[in-house]
């Protein structure tokens, strides 16, 4: 199960929460979940609101590999900008492998394209969560380049502007137009979660009208 809690927050299998925001500080609904493990890609206010979420364990900008309840989680260093973090700091990429072998890659607030070594390490995931709103992360055209390089089965765009959002990000439409130009199928999801039975491989799935 993958539940989208807006911005960059995803809840996996009712167990692992990635990048929770507090809702109010960015103009969006507050996440209302209980998590066993919280993974935070970087310590910015719109990604690090673990204190409002009941939880057992938190990993903040974690680099390295560990096992949690039969999930294998690897944190990989990346940057929030194209100057190796000089402008906005570092961000972790999380690669999560579930007990049944499904792989999830959450790119955090990635601000640059990946080198060949990282592409090789991350490619062919089942699910890719990628920022597409530009301004302070990669832009839509860069996101398309990474999607082609990483070859995920399913793409979930994140970190873009929606109605009510306080952050000056770009909306999702420019990204979706590029996706359409590439001939990739787009599926709009009108509820906040999907599971293995409701995802469709080879697609970009985006959540709309969910709050």
UniProtKB/TrEMBL annotation:
GO MF terms, alphabetically ordered: hydrolase activity
Keyword Hydrolase listed? The answer is yes
Q: Print the keywords alphabetically.
A: Hydrolase
Q: Cite the InterPro entries for this sequence.
A: RibonucZ/Hydroxyglut_hydro (IPR036866)
Q: Where are the transmembrane segments?
A: none
Indicate what this protein is called per its UniProt record: Hydrolase
The record lists the organism as Stygiolobus azoricus
